[in-house]
Amino acid sequence: MLIESYRNFIVELVTTQCSMKRQNVRTLSLVVCTFTYLLIGAAVFDSLESDFESKRWDFLQAVKNNFMKKYNVTAEDFRMMEIVIIENKPHKAGPQWKFAGAFYFATVVLAMIGYGHSTPVTIGGKAFCMAYAMVGIPLGLVMFQSIGERLNKFASVIIRRAKRYMHCSHTEATEMNLMLATGMLSSIIITTGAAVFSRYEGWSYFDSFYYCFVTLTTIGFGDYVALQNDQALMNKPGYVALSLVFILFGLAVVAASINLLVLRFMTMQAEDAKRDEQDAQNLAAANQPVTFDTEHSYNIHGKLLNSSNYMTEYDETASICSCTCLGGTRCMNHETFADPDFRPTDIIASTISLKRASV
């Protein structure tokens, strides 16, 4: 019983150590790849945007100086004009906190887009925004995830029927099929939305495509925000509804893609766990040694294989069981000592075997 318990413990320990080692390597690899990707991105953005930023800053400073000199405006007055213009910018679309604008803001908060086009100013509004986000964001994540699962289920049904119609040998919808389907649907939504926003907002198609991508990935820089021209929030309810449907449905499709990635990662984890268990079982069947951080090495059944103190030709039959007989080289339970020459003569001079009393 004790040997079997120890064997199960060793198998479990080996499985855990192998699994933790694989997971640690994967985590470290992900961290290194992520930071490398960040460094590459920083270098590319620096080379693409830095020079243009400097030229634009110099141009704006020249315009500012010419304006102040032409109209004899002081630095304080010019600063006040800047504040008035910046604060007035969100109001170009009309009242931001009537019901239509407030609903649009609540949608942006729940979807974690965060354009920054309008923000609460009062203490009560800021406090409610934090409490609202704490409840709304998890609710939105669960909702989008659930819709994504339903979309994946619907896509799998369509794919199976399409494969049956084409008389394919394998009619099951694979993960690759679902990823391809959600990717195509995401592309259709972004390209269609870009055409719509390009028409209503007056942006170029590329800028509209950029806005759609930034919105559906919840990056939300705020450099392009829909419904901010021509009192759109008050005068174009159909366009407001279309924008909200685009955000919610688009995020649901993105959630479907994320759901597939999460399922794929969980599958990889399950496969690793199964592989580790199989490796441990193979190790037990082969009776291979298991080495710990100490100087001793044991096989899977708990037998001592090597030690600095007990290296003899009997090492393969030496046992680390709980038998503590003190007589001769073999006990009554026919278990050998690790060292056959070991005889505690200072304790017992007789060769009679003494068995430990049973408890």
TrEMBL record:
Domain Potassium channel: from-to ranges: 95-151, 187-262
Cited Pfam families: Ion_trans_2
Keyword set includes Nuclease: no
Major localization class: membrane
Annotated transmembrane regions: 27-45, 97-115, 127-147, 178-197, 209-227, 239-265
Bilayer topology annotation: Multi-pass membrane protein
Species for this entry: Musca domestica
One GO process term, biological-process aspect: stabilization of membrane potential
GO MF, any single term: potassium ion leak channel activity
Protein's recorded name: Two pore potassium channel protein sup-9
Alphabetical UniProt keywords: Ion channel, Ion transport, Membrane, Potassium, Potassium channel, Potassium transport, Transmembrane, Transmembrane helix, Transport
GO cellular component: plasma membrane
InterPro entries xrefs: 2pore_dom_K_chnl, 2pore_dom_K_chnl_TASK, K_chnl_dom
Localization, UniProt: Membrane
Family assignment from sequence similarity: Belongs to the two pore domain potassium channel (TC 1.A.1.8) family.
Keyword rRNA-binding (UniProt): no
